[in-house]
Amino acid sequence: MHMAKQAARADETARVAAARAGEAGAFDALVRPLLPRLNAFAYRMVAHPEDAAELVQDALLKAHQRLASFRGDASFSTWLFAILTRRCLDHLNARRRWRRDAQAHTRESPDAPHHRVGAELRRPEARFEAREHIAFCFSCVSRSLPPEEAAAIFLREVFGFKNREAARVCGVSESVLRHRLSAGRQAMQDAFDDLCGLVNKRGVCHQCAGLRDHAPAENRGAPPPDLSGARDDAYRRRLTIVQDADLESGSSAALHRLMFRAVDAVERAAR
After folding, report:
1. Quick check: 159 and 41 in contact, CB under 8 A?
2. Beta bridge partners of 205
3. Which one of 9, 88, 171, 202 has the fewest beta carbons within 10 angstroms of its own beta carbon?
4. Helix or strand holding residue 9 (H, E)
């Protein structure tokens, strides 16, 4: 394993050198394997498809411009994630946080595209997957957190960065990262305890079951999982679902792009 890591780092060093030298296609070859994770991270952080795509492109441009400053004391992936995370944080800090129950407000808004959601659920090729919707909901709730706490949660708990890597990406010490993780996790658990019908039958949000019921029988995926039980265990089970769900290109991806735009529009109008 150690030899494999050394070989991978040597290969990365060579590819960075080629990109710095201006070899045709070298920078694209360097970043191409990282794009799926970069796109997924930005999408889940900012909860808006077009904003996420713009932030990724901006981060890639900045990385290309700053390539000479890459020292190699961290992996190129970590360095690039740090640039993207900073752009996402700047983007989110320039905007008001969403209300914790933003999805419920969207459901009640006369301006929300309810007819388009219904049409999307009825498309013959559509399929509503509750697990993808749980990942959608996780991103919506994360928009109610201080962005720095949300970044810590996504880097560490969803995208699997080690504490040291995540702290480096965020430009903070490991102790600061752990504090942000703890605060963010507490806020997320409090929100799900209050809102989520999969945790608390009295919760205001039963969207997973409601959307599935609204879809034609042939377009329904598996029923929503039960996320009740011990608080920490329920949160871990939710995280596993969020990690595994293909929110970006899964069966319900088009529906969730539409819904992210709708929640964002309602939250902007509410301020």
Report:
1. yes
2. 196
3. 202
4. helix 2-20
Greatest CA separation found in the chain? 61
* Euclidean distance between CA atoms 205 and 195, whole angstroms: 6
CA distance 258 to 177: 33
Helices (H) and strands (E) in the chain, counts: 14, 0
- What digits encode the pLDDT tens for the residues 152-181? 999 999 999 999 999 999 999 999 999 999
Burial of 258 (0-12, 13-18, 19+ CB in 10 A): middle
Reported as a pLDDT band with limits 50, 70 and 90, residue 22 is confident
Helix, strand or coil, per DSSP, at residue 128? strand
Q: DSSP strand E in the chain: where?
A: none
- pTM for the structure as a whole: 0.93
Burial bucket for residue 124 (CB in 10 Å: 0-12, 13-18, 19+)? exposed
Task: Give me 170's structure tokens.
Answer: 């965020």
CA distance 185 to 98: 17
Domains belonging to the chain, first-starting first, are 1-95 (1.10.1740.10), 98-271 (no CATH)
